[in-house]
Amino acid sequence: MSSAIVHQPRIRQGGRVLIAIVGGNLQGVEATYLAHKAGWEVLVIDRKPVVPAKGFCDHFLQLDVVRQENLGKAFKGVDLVIPALENEEALGRLTQWTRSSGPPFAFDPNAYAISSSKMKSERLFAQTKVPTPLPWPECGFPVVAKPDMGSGSQGVMVLNDSESFSAQAFGSTGHWVLQEFIKGPSYSIEIIGTSGQYVPLKVTDLAMDETYDCKRVLAPTDLPAAIISDFEQISISLAKDLRLTGLMDVEVILHGNSLKVLEIDARLPSQTPTTVYWSTGLNMIRMLGDLFLNKFNQKRIKPHSPRGVVYEHIHVSPGIIEVAGEHIMSGTDELGIRSDFFGADEAITNYAPDRNEWVATLIISADTRNAAWEKRNAVLADIQQHYKIETYRDSVPNLINYF
Fold first, then answer.
1. Which of 75, 202, 272, 334 is the most exposed place for a label (fewest CB within 10 A)?
2. How far is it, in rounded angstroms, from Cα 102 to Cα 79?
3. Domain ranges of the chain
4. CA–CA separation, 286 vs 39, rounded Å?
5. According to CATH, what is the number of the domain 18-107?
6. Domain 113-129+182-300 indexed as CATH 3.30.470.20
7. What number of helices (H) and strands (E) belong to the chain?
8. Going by C-beta distance under 8 Å and a sequence separation of 6 or more, which residues neighbour residue 345?
9. Cis ω for the linkage preceding 104 (within 30 of 0)
10. Which long-range contacts (CB under 8 A, 24 or more apart) does 180-184 make?
């Protein structure tokens, strides 16, 4: 896909555009939420009959895109297809079909093939000469072991000593990336564009639970301006070397005064896009539409002055409220959008008044980050009081919990 390709969307009553989001779990929730903020009509497609995004999309179709022979019928009238899944077979089928006869597909298969493999990503990092943690055996313990495939913290282990390392029997380390484990705060940035036009967006701060799953995103960042500039240049270098057309997420850790790149994902991420939207007004789904439906113009990307945002996941059950990673939102029943939710601006949740166990993604904003945090504390206190909850749990990473 090149920026010269222009697809004219079919305008519906009220000027709406119809997009198909393939995948109704966490990425699908993110895409549906932001597409609605853009004023678009949303069709969610998933092979499962019940997925989280089904609860607030405009249309839902249970369909396995790999096995469906006539995709043209399923996607009739769709102006743009956005993948929200990591199934290689499905992505391959959609890429092939959209190239031959379908609507534009907001996906870069070549960039994704590299970013979805940690081993290929590490080779890209070396080629681009971006700073990364030291590889094994150049580093000492603890060592972090990452499976080649898989996103986020899935399958990741932290090994504290030679005994625990030997017990894992990595052999030649063929399908694992082994590198030094670095402690420090984590940050994320998205970059969007195509060759010659790359725009780094806004940095967000990430907080992890005890399993290293992201539980909270904060904006604006607490990084100083010089380090933000370094982060933006790192993202531009990686996008150029990938020849990216689309959206990419770059995650780093701050070690001393230096950023170390942990991973990249050439796809729509979850959590950070909504945080960026509430903080700056930048809508990454709308930007993808500009990139794949119209002529991309980086000068149109104009954020407003950043507001403070706290975006986090909670699990409420009898007697306890827990802040935890986004895994608690994955595979739930249908979610809905609620405004002014116990004082939060919005919540994406399966809450019901008669339900004593539920999950929610809280979206809380204020003029400043400190004010947003104070507001967040009041929201949780209100929930605790309403449900007479005594136990509050907010876990953090702890090496003792690993090998």
1. 334
2. 9
3. 18-107, 113-129+182-300, 143-180, 308-396
4. 9
5. 3.40.50.720
6. yes
7. 10, 19
8. 278, 339, 363, 364, 365
9. no
10. 180/133, 180/134, 180/135, 180/136, 180/138, 180/139, 180/140, 180/142, 180/143, 180/144, 181/133, 181/141, 181/142, 181/143, 181/144, 181/399, 182/133, 182/253, 182/255, 182/260, 183/255, 184/253, 184/254, 184/255
Type of residue at 110: N
SS3 331: coil
Pairing of strands 358-366, 391-394: unpaired
Per-residue model confidence as pLDDT tens digits over 105-129? 999 999 999 999 988 999 999 999 9
The pLDDT mean for the chain works out to 90
Q: What tokens appear for 189 in the block?
A: 């940035």
Q: Give the other-Cβ count within 10 Å of 91's Cβ.
A: 23
Contact 255, 5 (CB under 8 A): no
One-letter amino acid for residue 88 of the chain:
E
**Confidence at residue 144, expressed as pLDDT on a 0 to 100 scale:** 81
List pLDDT tens digits, range 239-292.
999 999 999 999 999 998 899 999 999 999 999 999 999 999 999 999 999 999
% of the chain surpassing 90 pLDDT: 75
Taking residues 219-225, report their average pLDDT: 97
pLDDT at 299: 73
**Which range is least confidently modeled, 135-144, 189-198, 270-279, 285-294?**
135-144
Q: How far apart are CA 329 and CA 75, in angstroms?
A: 27
Task: For the beta carbon of residue 164, count every other beta carbon within 10 angstroms.
Answer: 16
State pLDDT tens for residues 341-353. Answer: 999 999 999 999 9
Question: What is d(CA 92, CA 28) in angstroms, rounded to the nearest whole number?
Answer: 18
Beta strand pairing call for 258-265 and 197-200: unpaired
Q: CB-based contacts of 305: which residues, under 8 Å, 6+ apart?
A: none
The H or E element spanning position 262 is: strand 258-265
